[in-house]
Specification:
single chain; alpha+beta; 5-stranded mixed sheet; 6 helices; 20% helix; globular
């Protein structure tokens, strides 16, 4: 089993008697189903349905003060805390950015020998393994307790990319991407059966009308790797943007229709003069509706 401390992740805590209902009325996942030891994937959207911040969320046990812990991008942790505070109004909740004292350890390729209090399985894909919320200085000790070997965070990134899981800020731009474009619907990040939340009408309309034109897909690099953000071309025409890469694997945000037309016509994909192939062309096709998040 491998473990890596993720320096790009922070933690925001939401507590108070109204915390569960407060969060459930704002985010894409069903917070009412959370309990200690269980994690869910979700996001806070704009009223127009675009992602401001995505996160993994778990409930803290009573011994850790209760409430909810959001494992989110470090650079957005303070902004997320402030945004949640903006929505607080008269709700009995308190929001705190704990990123200076609490971080995220990812562990994969096995099951923990024991499960620390603030540990949960990654809800996006079982192969992503586990998340453990722990201070950075205690990460090596936590890795030893669960029976994992500490490795660099780049190893986790390579694992994530191989599984086709995008990272915000590199594989898509916050404030500019809809949940469907980042595959949140396929990664159990949107509950289409829960009540209202910010941006819900737009997301539900895209789901039921099948109007998502852009998707994140896995790509194979036959040569070198383009820089994140490089334009993906088909016969000289832009069809998408290359995201993160590791070795011969990577992710790209593509226009489904344009890319499908190019592949059907036998037109190769390139970026920066480098050949690009889709790892799984069938990913261009729609998938059955996910109803649980």
């Amino acid at each position: 089993m491998k473990a890596a401390f993720l320096p790009d992740r922070g933690v925001v805590k939401v507590t108070g008697s109204d915390a569960r209902d407060f969060l459930n009325g704002l985010v894409t996942t069903d917070v009412t189903l959370l309990r200690p030891g269980l994690g869910r994937f979700g996001a806070l959207l704009t009223p127009q349905g675009k992602i401001t911040t995505d996160f993994l969320i778990t409930e803290a046990p009573a011994g850790h003060g209760g409430g909810f812990l959001l494992d989110c991008p470090l650079v957005l942790a303070q902004a997320l805390a402030e945004k949640l505070g903006f929505y607080r109004l008269r709700a009995k909740v308190s929001v705190e950015n704990l990123s200076e004292s609490l971080g995220v350890l990812a562990a994969w390729d096995g099951d923990p020998a024991l499960k620390p209090d603030l540990a949960f399985a990654d809800p996006r894909n079982a192969a992503l393994g586990w998340r453990i919320l722990v201070p950075e200085e205690l990460a090596p000790k936590a890795a030893g307790l669960i029976g994992a070997e500490m490795v660099d965070s780049t190893a986790y990134d390579a694992h994530r990319i191989a599984l086709g899981v995008p990272r915000g800020g590199l594989d898509f731009i916050y404030g500019d991407a809809f949940p469907h474009e980042t595959n949140m619907d396929r990664l159990h990040g949107v509950d289409f059966d829960k009540g209202c939340y910010v941006g819900q009408e737009v997301v539900s309309r895209m789901q039921h009308r099948g109007t998502a034109r852009t998707r994140t897909v896995r790509i194979i690099l036959d040569g070198g790797a383009p820089e994140p953000g490089a334009t993906l071309l088909a016969g000289g025409k832009p069809v998408g943007t290359v995201g993160t890469t590791a070795g011969h694997r990577g992710l790209a945000l593509i226009r489904i229709d344009r890319t499908a037309d190019a592949l059907e016509a036998g037109i190769p994909l390139t970026s920066g003069g480098l050949a690009i192939r889709l790892a799984e062309p069938d990913e261009l096709r729609s998938t059955p509706r996910q109803t649980v998040a």
